[in-house]
Amino acid sequence: MTGASAPGDAALAGWARDTLGHDFTDLGLLRRALTHSSVPGTGSYQRLEFLGDRVLGCVVAAWLYRDYDEPEGKLTARYHGLVEGPACAEVARGLGVPEHLFMEKTVRAKGLGRSDNVLGDIAEAIVAAIFIDGGFAAAETFVRANWGKLLDAGPRLLVDPKSRLQEWALGQSRQAPTYELIGREGPDHAPRFKVRVVVRGHDPVAGEGANKREAEKAAAVAMLEKVTS
Question: Residue 121 catalytic?
Fold first, then answer.
């Protein structure tokens, strides 16, 4: 796709039915959930993301409480692993969301359509769109079908990369990694941050993201790949 183009209504409805598992009565909800703020003159996913974050949290918390007879601490760890940005972005990629985004051409060219930050927010916006269109039961079915795959994939997706890197570094050198912001570029509506992570005994590694937190996670992932490969 180029520019802000995305599938027409028939293709979008078919994708929703076949991939998302929901037949929308109001397809405009899904279209808005897939629309980035760079597209002029239209509503974006941001308000839906606000609602979807809460719906997702409620579904996941109730699901874990019912299905996992564990202490609160373990439930909390599972919960955060499932609802934080990288996990939601993984769900979005699995659903093919990047190919269905409405996004301004130059913003897409910067890679924002593949950003964990954007994809994670849009996954939550889709949850909200399904919730508004079909009710809580429809949203719950969607969440369990797709976020459940993360549990099936094991701990790789359920542990924050910064936490994994810190655990590894402390075990090796007894010093925690340090992060330094080394660059910021792009317009206000689509910034790109660059962060360097330093681990004692290893050359620094950099990562980029749509915000500082995402860039730190990208740097942590890059460092983990380097030191554990």
Answer: no
Q: Is 84 a catalytic residue?
A: no
Among the options 53, 90, 133, 140, which is catalytic?
53
Token pair recorded at residue 49 = 């993301």
Q: What is the pTM of this model?
A: 0.69
Mean pLDDT per 10-residue interval, the chain, length 229 residues: 56 94 95 90 89 96 92 78 84 93 83 83 97 97 92 60 79 83 86 92 90 87 78
From the candidates 104, 116, 124, 133, give the one annotated as an active-site residue.
124
Beta strands in the chain (DSSP E): 178-185, 192-198, 205-209
List of residues 6+ apart from 100 with CB closer than 8 A: 6, 7, 12, 15, 34
